[in-house]
């Protein structure tokens, strides 16, 4: 299955995503902020990254911009999983290279369907 990185400052969100996607057979790694996520992405290769927007140290937008400069991540899907719903922020995320947007709270089945669809492309 796929290697997935979940980047969120909430341990409970990371755990919920890990349970939902790990149950599908995916190998899920965790990072608590964008800086940690970018570092983990430099060390290991992920097939999908799911990130929160608002985090300490480095936010999700900054992390996406950093990852998209790395040739290994130009085509890797990156999904936002966030409480943010502002259309302007969504536009910024798309311009930065985000593949999609999932609003918290999320449904595990919905997350699983979206991940399967994004990884199939």
From TrEMBL:
PROSITE patterns: RESPONSE_REGULATORY (PS50110). Residues 3-119 form the Response regulatory domain. Keywords: Phosphoprotein. It holds the Pfam family Response_reg. SUPFAM superfamilies: CheY-like. The modification 4-aspartylphosphate is found at residue 52. PANTHER family: CHEMOTAXIS TWO-COMPONENT RESPONSE REGULATOR, STRESS RESPONSE REGULATOR PROTEIN 1. This is Response regulator. The lineage of its organism: Bacteria, Pseudomonadati, Pseudomonadota, Alphaproteobacteria, Micropepsales.
């Amino acid at each position: 299955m796929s290697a997935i990185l979940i980047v969120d400052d909430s341990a409970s969100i990371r755990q919920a995503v890990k349970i939902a996607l790990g149950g599908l057979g995916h190998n899920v790694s965790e990072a608590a902020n964008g800086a940690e996520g970018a570092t983990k992405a430099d060390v290991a290769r992920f097939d999908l990254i799911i990130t929160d927007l608002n985090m300490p140290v480095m936010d999700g937008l900054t992390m996406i911009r950093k990852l998209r400069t790395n040739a290994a991540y130009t085509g890797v899907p990156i999904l936002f999983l966030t409480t943010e719903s502002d259309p302007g922020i969504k536009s910024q995320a798309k311009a930065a290279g985000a593949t999609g947007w999932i609003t918290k709270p999320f449904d595990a089945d919905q997350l699983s369907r979206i991940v399967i669809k994004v990884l199939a492309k």
